[in-house]
Every structure is written in C-alpha cells, then in structure tokens.
Amino acid sequence: MTSSAGIPWDEHVIKLQATSELEAIRTEIEDKNLKYPEFYLKPFHAYDEGNLCWYAPELGAYLSQLACCAG
C-alpha cells in the first residue's frame, strides 16, 4: 500500500519493520515447520502473501489508531 487519502501506510510499516524488538518476537514465535491450509497463504485483499502474512498485523495497530482518532 502506498500513501492513500493522506495516510503514509508504507512509511509506517517500514518504521515498524526496522524495530528489532518486533523481529525478535517474530523469530521467537514463528514455527517454520507448521503447515497452514493453502487458503491462508493465497493472496487476499491487500495482502499478496495471504491472511497470515506479517504485513497484516504490522498495519493493524496503525489502522486501529487511525480509526480511533478519526472524526
């Protein structure tokens, strides 16, 4: 996602991805041996890597904050 409606989506996600704490948590909890059903890994809406991609939760908190503060 790029900046849309004045919201810098990509910039926010890049900042989050640069946070070493988040990468440490991901490394700790991610189970590379776990096999997910194929439908979870198919492109879905804005997520090219499917519903279980890491982009979704990285963006989720930001979207919640925007929704909470809008209007």
Task: Please render the helix and strand layout as text.
Elements: H1 9-17, H2 20-29, H3 38-41, H4 55-69
Task: Characterize this entry briefly.
This protein is an all-alpha fold and 71 residues long. The chain has helices at residues 9-17, 20-29, 38-41, 55-69. It starts with 8 loop residues before the first helix and ends with a helix.
Average pLDDT: 76
Most strands sheet: none
- Coarse shape: globular
Helix content: 40-55%
Find the structural class using helix and strand composition.
mainly alpha
Number of helices: 4
Distance between the termini: 22 Å
Number of strand elements: 0
Task: Provide structural commentary.
This protein is mainly α and 71 residues long. The chain is built from four helices and no strands. It has helices at residues 9-17, 20-29, 38-41, 55-69. The protein is globular, with a radius of gyration of 14 Å. The two termini are 22 Å apart. The mean pLDDT is 76.
